[in-house]
Amino acid sequence: MATIGFIGLGNMGGPMAANLVRAGHAVRGYDLVAPLCDAAAAHGVTIVADAVAAAAGSEAVITMLPSGAAVRALYDDPAGILTAQNDCLMIDCSTIDVDTARYAHAAAERAGKQAIDAPVSGGVGGAVAARLTFMAGGTAQAFDRARPLFEVMGARVVHCGDAGAGQAAKICNNMILGISMIGVSEAFALADRLGLARQALFDVASTSSGQCWSLTSYCPVPGPVPESPANHGYAPGFAAALMLKDLLLSQAAAAQTGAETELGAHAARMYQAFADAGHGGEDFSAIFRMIASGHRG
Ligand code: NAD
What we know:
This protein is elongated. Strand 4 (about 60-65), helix 4 (about 70-75) and strand 5 (about 90) form a beta-alpha-beta unit. The chain has a 6-stranded parallel beta sheet with strand order 3-2-1-4-5-6, sandwiched between helices. Strands 7-8-9 form a 3-stranded mixed beta sheet. It contains 13 helices and 9 strands. Helix 8 (about 165-195) packs across helix 12 and helix 11 (about 240-255) runs antiparallel to helix 12. The protein has about 300 residues and is α/β, with parallel strands linked by helices. It has helices at about 15-20, 35-40, 50-55, 70-75, 100-110, 125-130, 140-155, 165-195, 200-205, 215, 240-255, 260-280, 285-295; strands at about 5, 25-30, 45, 60-65, 90, 115, 120, 130-135, 155-160. The protein folds into 2 domains: about 5-165, Rossmann fold (3-Layer(aba) Sandwich); about 170-295, Orthogonal Bundle (N-(1-d-carboxylethyl)-l-norvaline Dehydrogenase, domain 2), CATH 1.10.1040.10. The protein starts with a strand and ends with a helix. Nicotinamide-adenine-dinucleotide (NAD) binds near residues 9, 32, 51 and 66.
């Protein structure tokens, strides 16, 4: 069993750290928010004074932070987490831009350490149930070292390629998700106007060529999929603000690389309007309500 530093004990990091403890690892945790530290301590995480203390003496350090800027700040600090012991494995599970992920890999390498970018999908429910999917970027050797930890916190682990490949996979996947959720929502909005029963559309499309995860697992209208957020007041789940964050990351990457992502750009604009209208805290499938109302926001 290993000693693991865990920085960022929020909605995702808190339960991920708890699952590492449950598997028998010693977890040294830190978050800027004291009540989150208290909650993690209740799950057996040893709370330490700061990020450097979390990294000190750890065989692996996991960061689960809100943004690329937060990750960069930790990797940039000359007296920071990279002062951990030499063979410490640096794992960043935050969803951030590919450039910052590669920057973190390079900084770790300069400090003589292996690194992995490993964003996740599966949401808070997946984090609690240890059912996350990890998409990892880094060398095969670093991936082999990280895999046993991912297997404790998740159900599926994919080595996507070299540094930054995990983040690339994440933003491409979530661009598909944002676009498909809007597509499914538009279909239900049109069905409503045509007088077609929602269940009838679901029964046809879920077994026809319109089938997709946004329809069959996460249906944006109440009824057909009992566990979808639509049946629970659109409580997240996966918040619209986080979908917007991921779509903006995909659009920044598209602009940088010259990729044509017309629908991704449009999806980003729609989620921006939805968030601007005060719905960022709702589940991302609640965009159905904006679409069905015929209003932008
Ligand atoms: P969150 O805001 O709940 O947690 C992030 C935590 O990081 C906060 O508690 C914050 O206090 C802490 N933090 C920020 N800077 C810090 C620092 N310098 N030192 C210590 N702690 C610091 O966010 P979350 O929902 O847990 O998401 C974390 C990451 O996972 C994000 O990048 C998000 O995009 C990604 N993600 C989230 C979900 C989801 O459904 N919530 C799903 C997949 C991926």
